[in-house]
Design brief:
- The complex is a heterodimer of chains A (about 110) and B (about 120).
- By secondary structure, chain A is an all-beta fold.
- Chain A is built from no helices and eleven strands.
- Chain A is globular and about 35 Å long.
- In chain B, the strands form two sheets. In chain B, strands 2, 4, 5, 6, 9, 10 and 11 form a seven-stranded mixed beta sheet that branches.
- The chains are: A mainly beta (about 110), B mainly beta (about 120).
- At the A-B interface, strand 4, strand 5 and strand 10 of A face strand 5 and strand 10 of B.
Chain lengths: ~110, ~120
């Protein structure tokens, strides 16, 4: 099975900051890596698919990169509505797996 | 509007059964694979099961294999998750999601399942 490891698990940042979240797969997953945002009490929301493609309607301050085993989600300038938990997920092979999540909090 | 609406959640004792439903609208349901993802209280997301567009192939997490069965009725635009031999660790919010290409692009609001021991 493919294990996904995110870092950091939590992060405090300020509005306007540039934030980087990383995700590492236990084996190569090509670019079958997706990023989701989840706010408290809500369902997850797709942000980035296949490592670097921005989902329609998602602000351009979100970007993703990587291939193989190492991936990155960058928020270029944090906005108040971005404080949430972020998950990476591999869709290379079943069982699909998620990272443990990165909780982004206001500093 | 593309929409997924889960139902069938509730409270059940350990060893009991439940069937979740996910009603789809706003898209051609029969053209897409579907999946269930759960989230235990205060925990992260856990993939549970997936099914191809025709229903001919199904996939499960090891934690539920043999106890959960995913199915679909394309004539009713509905996805199901039959859960038996439920355990306390199955307590979670269960989300259904539409799979486009290789990612989950539309999610329902979730159904809560509580298993008491």
């Amino acid at each position: 099975d493919i294990q996904m490891t995110q870092s950091p698990s939590s992060l405090s940042a300020s509005v306007g900051d540039r934030v980087t979240i990383t995700c590492r797969a236990s084996q190569s997953i090509n670019t079958y890596l997706n990023w989701y945002q989840q706010k408290p009490g809500k369902a997850p929301n797709l942000l980035i698919y296949t490592a670097s493609s921005l989902e329609s309607g998602v602000p351009s301050r979100f970007s993703g990169s990587g291939s193989g085993t190492d991936f990155t989600l960058i928020i270029s300038s944090l906005q108040p509505e971005d404080f949430a938990t972020y998950y990476c997920q591999q869709s290379y092979a079943t069982p699909y797996s998620f990272g443990q999540g990165t909780k982004l909090e206001i500093k | 509007e593309v929409q997924l609406l889960e139902s069938g959640g509730g409270s059940v004792q350990s060893g009991g059964s439940l069937r979740l439903s996910c009603a789809a609208s706003g898209f051609t349901f029969s053209s897409y694979a579907m999946t269930w993802v759960r989230q235990a209280p205060g925990k992260g997301l856990e993939w549970v099961s997936a099914i191809t567009s025709s229903g001919s192939s199904t996939y499960y997490a090891y934690s539920v294999e043999g106890r959960f069965t995913i199915s679909r009725d394309n004539s009713k635009n509905t996805l199901y998750l039959q859960m038996i031999s439920l355990r306390a660790e199955d307590t979670a919010i269960y989300y259904c999601a539409k799979i486009w290409m290789s990612y989950m692009d539309v999610w329902g609001k979730g159904a809560t399942v509580t298993v008491s021991s």
